[in-house]
């Protein structure tokens, strides 16, 4: 009887030990996933997007908002991160759960104003067989009104960087009244107000900058120094679906404003591009509806070509364009007497339509460039885009204020309210 009890006792102890052993192995092999929650979601929605295999565990998000451009851009980034995780952890096979590779992501979003949205994606990753998580922040800033990613150069003059050298990083979120810069996961905050003297567009509002409407108007209305050299770059025949946007990016980079003489027939094809040109502070002029030689038309036909184009532009931007660039520069007495607008010609011809070659365009424009010049380029040619980058960079580095035709003529003291032909703003 006694030995029977002993055997039983040994059996019980043995089974407890086995069960504990299994539990311990189970416990120490289990994958513990840290919690990662979105803290701020002022724009769009997020839903869970998970994927689990024996090698990896993915817990990320799908972002949805009214704006397809934003949704797609974020999806592309998330897909890329997932792909990266899979590729980096596909050669070995994990045995225990805890050895799996992990990708965790969360999305935060900020609404800056009606046009601007900012997104932050925090990613935590763990490699296969590793215990250590690495955290990364990635940021995206969108102009949802114009479907483009926006950079600080679109908002502030280049010099703003010197003011925030310590905080500056390529990763930042625009928020209502400030910018958060990220150095890895370390955050530093800078209010728009401290950078207001560098404002160069109306993309941020008075309320973002935390100033009165009066102060805002004086900051954003006339940003020209009459004692400094100035130049007007003009683009004819657009807008073009992609080239015009690329040129806008270049102009922003160098704090430059330009004048786009558009064709009515293209305006209606690309209203978003027209709106972007206007909202980014550039001037739009009239290049007629269908590019005829105006000297071969009747007075009524001339007026129609110009007025219909002006109306189409106004319908999109809310601003009535006033300057006219006649196709081929062709003018005669009938043209001049048919409309009250000023005619803007040019004194530097890039011949970009002819050469389609940056190496020829750039020297032609820059060889004899002077204060008050009006440069002629065409934003419909892809070969013009890299030439613009070099031209604008040179002018910027040589202290030219790159401004619109109206701004330049006004600063030089010319009256642009009446019919008159201008070739430049040289005095
Ligand atoms: Zn033209």
Commentary on this structure:
This protein has 427 residues and is an alpha/beta fold. The chain is built from 14 helices and 17 strands. The strands form four sheets. Strands 1-2-3-4-5-6 form a six-stranded mixed β-sheet, covered by helices on one side. Strands 10, 11, 12, 14, 15 and 16 form a six-stranded parallel β-sheet that branches. A three-stranded antiparallel β-sheet has the order 7-8-9, with no helix packed on it. A hairpin with a 4-residue loop joins strand 3 (101-111) and strand 4 (116-126). Helix 6 packs parallel to helix 13 (384-397) and helix 12 packs parallel to helix 13. The longest helix is centred in the N-terminal third of the chain and has 28 residues, at 2-29. It is elongated. Bound molecules: zinc ion.
Q: Helix/strand-derived class? A: alpha/beta
How large, in whole angstroms, is the Cα Rg? 30 Å
Strand order of the largest sheet: 1-2-3-4-5-6
- Low-pLDDT segments, ≥5 res: none
Whole-number average pLDDT? 92
Distance between the termini: 123 Å
Record the SSE blueprint:
Elements: H1 2-29, E1 45-52, E2 56-64, H2 68-88, E3 101-111, E4 116-126, E5 134-143, E6 148-149, H3 160-163, E7 172-174, E8 178-183, E9 186-191, H4 206-209, H5 213-220, E10 230-236, H6 243-253, E11 259-262, H7 264-267, H8 271-279, E12 283-286, H9 299-317, H10 333-338, E13 343-344, E14 348-349, H11 352-355, H12 358-366, E15 374-378, H13 384-397, E16 401-403, H14 405-411, E17 421-422
Helix pairs in contact: 6-13, 12-13
Bound molecules: zinc ion.
Residues 236-237, 287, 291, 327 line the site of zinc ion.
């Amino acid at each position: 009887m006694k030995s029977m009890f002993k055997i039983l006792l040994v059996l019980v102890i043995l089974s407890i030990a086995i069960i504990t052993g299994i539990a311990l192995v189970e416990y120490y092999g289990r994958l513990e996933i840290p919690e990662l929650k979105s803290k701020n979601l002022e724009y769009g929605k997020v839903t869970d997007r998970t994927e689990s295999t024996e090698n990896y565990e993915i817990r990320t998000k799908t972002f949805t908002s009214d704006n397809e451009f934003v949704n797609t851009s974020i999806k592309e980034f998330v897909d890329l991160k997932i792909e990266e995780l899979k590729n980096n952890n596909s050669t070995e096979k994990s045995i225990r759960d805890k050895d799996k590779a992990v990708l965790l992501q969360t999305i935060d979003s900020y609404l800056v104003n009606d046009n601007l949205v900012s997104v932050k994606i925090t990613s935590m990753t763990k490699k296969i067989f590793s215990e250590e998580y690495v955290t990364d922040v990635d940021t995206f800033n969108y102009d949802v009104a114009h479907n483009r990613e926006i950079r600080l150069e679109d908002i502030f003059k280049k010099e703003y960087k010197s003011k925030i050298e310590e905080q500056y990083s390529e990763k930042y979120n625009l928020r209502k009244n400030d910018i958060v810069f990220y150095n890895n996961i370390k955050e530093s905050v800078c209010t728009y107000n401290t950078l207001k003297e560098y404002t160069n567009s109306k993309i941020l509002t008075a309320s973002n900058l935390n100033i009165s409407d009066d102060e805002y108007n004086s900051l954003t209305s006339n940003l020209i120094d009459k004692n400094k050299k100035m130049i007007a770059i003009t683009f004819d025949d657009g807008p073009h679906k992609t080239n015009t946007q690329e040129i806008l990016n270049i102009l922003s980079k160098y704090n430059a404003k330009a004048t786009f003489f558009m064709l009515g027939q293209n305006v209606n094809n690309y209203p978003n591009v027209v709106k972007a040109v206007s909202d980014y502070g550039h001037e739009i002029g009239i290049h007629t509806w269908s590019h005829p030689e105006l000297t071969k038309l009747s007075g009524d036909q001339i007026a129609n070509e110009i007025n219909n184009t002006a109306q189409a532009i106004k319908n999109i931007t809310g601003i009535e364009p006033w300057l006219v660039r006649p196709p081929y520069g062709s003018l005669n007495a009938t043209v001049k007497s048919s409309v009250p607008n000023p005619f803007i010609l040019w004194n530097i011809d890039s011949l970009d339509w002819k050469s389609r070659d940056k190496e020829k365009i750039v020297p032609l424009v820059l060889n004899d460039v002077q204060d008050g010049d009006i440069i002629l380029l065409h934003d419909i040619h892809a070969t013009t885009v890299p030439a613009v980058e070099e031209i604008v960079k040179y002018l910027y580095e040589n202290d030219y204020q790159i401004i619109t035709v109206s701004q330049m003529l006004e600063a030089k003291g010319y009256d642009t309210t009446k019919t008159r032909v201008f070739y430049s703003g040289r005095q």
